[in-house]
């Protein structure tokens, strides 16, 4: 257990003794008037686009809850802030809003140390000022997942909700509307909904020199149009996990994320999971760029230092220049890849500025990931920041009131209009659709993300395995089967997955 969580948990006994002072006065609609002065401390991972929202949120919540003082800390390193505060005797925060996957892994450590307050009862309470419960408010598919309950599964069958998604960014397939139309109008390619129809588009793309194809007039590698291409590692994660889910079911995908032995056990869906990877391999073999080509256009580019490197930028450039038709991702990841990063050279800075201008005029389309067959379920992969209440909070009742307030229509709409992420409620999506302030590409993505029965899939929420050196989703696990998409896997890749999965699983059991 790390120092932060060890210190926080030592405060739990004192928190329980004093919790009664803050737990009074709860009601169905989460009002807060007529009580003694109370203080609420909220810690949020800093996001520049949200600064104005959180400033107004603090004032509005205080106005609606007389006697309450709210402190909202938006910091780059919440881990250091919390450690300093706890060691200074100021106690743990009451609410945290953080993504998973941060280098300091604070959310993961709260989970591993079972330091989260259960939120199941909160789901049946009405959101602030409305006669609808929080459970009813959330879009279908955002509860009863690893992202709301990281302890569920074969080994840890705990069905309590501990975290809620707030700030959701969808990922699916971005496509070039100059080539593709939902109905195939104007001689364009018809937007496929399943893998079979997608693979059949090869006859429309074809090889250079073939009559009647998009590449009929190509004179060399620099002129070729590719059906499919990658830009970043996160896009591969989302595509792979959604493909497993559509072929083998969401349960099988979550077992995969939980390091369950899904690869060799037919009862766990191994046959269907292997089918999913067979389809992923077909995409690479037939439709992405040749490794020997002059450019890596259409090739997946892995970047170990966390920044978009020249290869990834080249793929985005190819997409915006009309040379890649489909590309996994989302509007946040696409625009984020074009933002300047520390260490960018002058050439990359100039290139990113040029590509941003191209994106502004680009005919961007978005569709959920393809289903595996006519009866398959479609998924939109989602990244989300998790909002939760530490078990050691001395203001749990007030913290719950704050969460109910955040999901109310007016607040959720304001948050969703503020940046690239949205609150996962229908009202928030509707607000984006009619807002004159919303960027056209954001409207396109969010209008399609959960349409046609597509379900959200929290693809980044792998179960923890902190003690194993290579024991995490991106290295020991994802790193072994991403090469399938590059045609680089050796014959023993599934064996490597089984071995590393077993190590991660053993580590989870040891911790719990």
Short description:
The chain is of the alpha/beta class. Helix content is 39%, strand content 12%.
CATH architect. name of one domain? 3-Layer(aba) Sandwich
Share of helical residues:
25-40%
The CATH topology of one domain is what? Answer: D-Maltodextrin-Binding Protein, domain 2
Mean of residue pLDDT values = 76
N-C termini distance? 12 Å
How much is the radius of gyration in Å?
Answer: 24 Å
Overall outline = globular
Number of strand segments: 11
Which key features would you list for this structure?
512 residues, alpha/beta, D-Maltodextrin-Binding Protein, domain 2, two-stranded parallel sheet, 39% helix, globular
Walk me through this protein's architecture.
The protein has 512 residues and is of the alpha/beta class. Among the domains are: 244 residues, Periplasmic binding protein-like II (D-Maltodextrin-Binding Protein, domain 2, 3-Layer(aba) Sandwich), CATH 3.40.190; 98 residues, no CATH class. It has 20 helices and 11 strands. The strands form 2 sheets. Strands 1, 2, 3, 4, 7, 8, 9, 10 and 11 form a 9-stranded mixed β-sheet that branches. A two-stranded parallel ribbon has the order 5-6. α3 links the parallel β1 and β2. The N terminus is likely disordered.
């Amino acid at each position: 257990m790390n120092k932060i969580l060890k210190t926080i948990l030592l405060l739990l006994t004192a928190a329980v003794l004093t919790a009664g002072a803050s737990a009074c006065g709860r009601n169905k609609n989460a009002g807060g008037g007529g009580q003694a002065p109370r203080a609420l401390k909220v810690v949020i991972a800093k996001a520049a686009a949200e600064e104005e929202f959180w400033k107004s949120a603090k004032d509005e919540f205080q106005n609606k809850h007389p006697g309450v003082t709210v402190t909202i800390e938006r910091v780059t390193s919440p881990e250091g802030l919390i450690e300093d505060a706890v060691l200074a005797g100021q106690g743990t925060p009451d609410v945290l809003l953080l993504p998973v996957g941060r280098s300091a892994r604070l959310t993961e450590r709260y989970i591993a140390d079972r330091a989260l307050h259960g939120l199941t009862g909160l789901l049946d309470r009405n959101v602030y000022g409305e006669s609808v419960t929080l459970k009813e408010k959330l879009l279908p598919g955002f509860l009863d997942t690893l992202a709301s309950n990281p302890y569920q599964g074969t080994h840890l069958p705990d069905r309590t909700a501990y975290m809620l998604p707030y700030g959701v960014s969808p990922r699916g397939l971005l496509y070039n509307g100059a080539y593709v139309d939902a109905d195939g109008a104007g001689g364009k390619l018809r937007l496929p909904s399943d893998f079979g129809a997608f693979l059949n588009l090869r006859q429309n793309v074809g090889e250079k020199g073939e009559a009647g194809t998009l590449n009929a007039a190509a004179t060399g590698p620099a002129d070729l149009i590719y059906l499919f291409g990658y830009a970043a590692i996160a896009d591969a994660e989302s595509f792979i996990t959604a493909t497993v889910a559509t072929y083998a079911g969401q349960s099988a995908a979550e077992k995969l994320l939980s390091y369950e032995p899904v690869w060799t056990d037919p009862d766990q869906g191994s046959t269907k999971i292997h089918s999913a990877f067979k389809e992923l391999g077909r995409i690479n073999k037939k439709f992405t760029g040749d490794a020997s080509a002059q450019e890596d256009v259409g090739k997946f580019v892995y970047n170990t230092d966390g920044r978009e490197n020249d290869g990834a930028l080249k793929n985005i450039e190819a997409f915006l220049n009309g040379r890649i038709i489909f590309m996994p991702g989302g509007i946040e990841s696409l625009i984020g890849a074009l933002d300047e990063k520390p260490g960018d050279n002058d050439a990359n800075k100039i290139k990113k500025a040029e590509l941003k201008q191209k994106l502004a005029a680009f005919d961007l389309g978005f569709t959920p990931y393809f289903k595996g067959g006519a009866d398959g379920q479609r998924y939109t992969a989602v990244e989300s920041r998790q909002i939760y209440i530490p078990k050691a909070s001395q203001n749990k009742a007030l913290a719950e009131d704050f969460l109910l307030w955040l999901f109310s229509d007016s607040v959720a709409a304001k948050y969703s209009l503020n940046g690239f992420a949205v609150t996962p409620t229908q009202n928030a999506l509707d607000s984006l659709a009619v807002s004159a302030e919303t960027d056209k590409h954001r409207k396109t993505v969010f209008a399609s993300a959960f349409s046609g029965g597509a379900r959200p899939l929290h693809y980044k929420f792998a179960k923890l395995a902190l003690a194993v050196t290579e024991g995490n989703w991106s290295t020991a696990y994802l790193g072994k089967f991403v090469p399938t998409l590059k045609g680089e896997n050796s014959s023993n890749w599934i064996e490597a997955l089984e071995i590393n999965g077993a190590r991660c699983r053993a580590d989870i059991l040891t911790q719990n």
